[in-house]
Here is the input.
Amino acid sequence: MGAAMSAQKTVFVKTYGCQMNVYDSERISELLAPAGYSAANSPEDADLIVLNTCHIREKAAEKVYSELGRLRELKALRREAGKDTMVAVAGCVAQAEGAEMRRRAPVVDLVVGPQAYHEFADLIAKARDGRDDVVATEFPARDKFQTLPARRGRQGVAAFLTVQEGCDKFCTFCVVPYTRGAEYSRPVAHLVAEAEALVEGGAREIVLLGQNVNAYHGEGPDGQPWTLARLMGRLAEIPDLARLRYTTSHPHDMHDDLVAAHRHNAKLMPFLHLPVQSGSDRILAAMNRKHTADHYLALVARIRDARPDIALSTDLIVGFPGETDQDFEATVRLVEAVGFAQTYSFKYSPRPGTPAASMASQVPDDVKSERLARLQKLLHDQQTAFNRSCVGRTLPVLFEREGRHPGQLVGRSPYLQAVHAEAPASWVGHTVDVEIVGQGPNSLAGKVLSGGSVTGP
Ligand code: SAH
Ligand code: SF4
Ligand code: F3S
Here is the structure.
């Protein structure tokens, strides 16, 4: 490309996986801007294509390789038109596969793991020079966030903020401790500064992210480790910030002060994603989850005592190695006992290098499918029941953007449900009392009360 260095180039970032990848993709786009890259509308128009990948289940990783197959054709087409295309793989597949990726998919020009993406601009320059050292998967000793550009410019109404990354829990089914590395908490002062910049840019809700977010123990301004509850207390002081949420929590790290925050922190929304994985103590032990079904139920009782209307969400795995019909029934009983507002449920997927992948008595796929179908019916019924219970109520909705129909806005209830309602576009970013008048499969229909009062920032 040579002389094209200073010319305007375009980048298309495609994101797979969890919310942290969404956050990372935003940061990658921001850090490529000073290198001359603006956002392309489609991969066809992009000089640089970044796949920010997920390795959590087999299907997630397979998707990346099929996308790379398509990109090989796209790259050839663009070359015929005299255009160069660079393909970068970032995220957890990049970390897990490293240099192997470029052997399996030669279309890949560079590979950059989740802890090394601050080196993106250097890697692009190396790839352009035809160098071979274009794989960055080391875990640096330094805080990568400190070398990223500060947050600037317009933000969405709901913004993500990574406060903690990595995981030391080593659940036996999970790749995350290997792809994201050891647990790390960002210092309070850095997070306050980033949150203020997000709010300055228009964010009104901040979702604090971490693979194990409630294990947060970043350094406070007093030099002491602060808990997540204390961090949220500080962030709640930002005047124009209306709402706080956090995800994903481990039941084992759900300490008293965090439970109490659901009682005391008025900006903390009454919604909690608390993965349980299974209702069988035998399976939970084999998963190395560090909690039993009874611990989980007792914890749910404490949380509901602090915040009676809290909506709970969870993750469940069926067909973990050795799971019997009795174990599965225990999961069904736990789900019935809790009553979830929302859930994610998966068939166990063996991940190379994790302890569970080589355990004896893997469960046949048809058994997994049968159990998943039964569980998902129950979960769907619970979610529908929860949404139905909201019809007729008036809920404060934070409007996030315009809807598909003219004159319509889409926002979120405190319980994270999407709510559609007719309202003026100028109400985006405002919290408004909305009467819930109906429910669809994925959202609620609302009506702004006559003379609808715009509250809060
Ligand atoms: N940090 C979170 C979740 C990370 S991954 C936690 O501690 O729970 C998101 C979800 O993917 C997990 O909660 C789990 O339900 C699911 N998952 C992870 N590894 C899996 C595997 N090998 N097979 C099937 N589901 C898996
Ligand atoms: Fe994976 Fe378990 Fe860590 Fe969650 S707590 S990221 S499931 S190892
Ligand atoms: Fe996937 Fe990595 Fe997130 S494996 S779920 S992108 S931490």
The mean pLDDT is 94. The chain is about 35% helix and 20% strand.
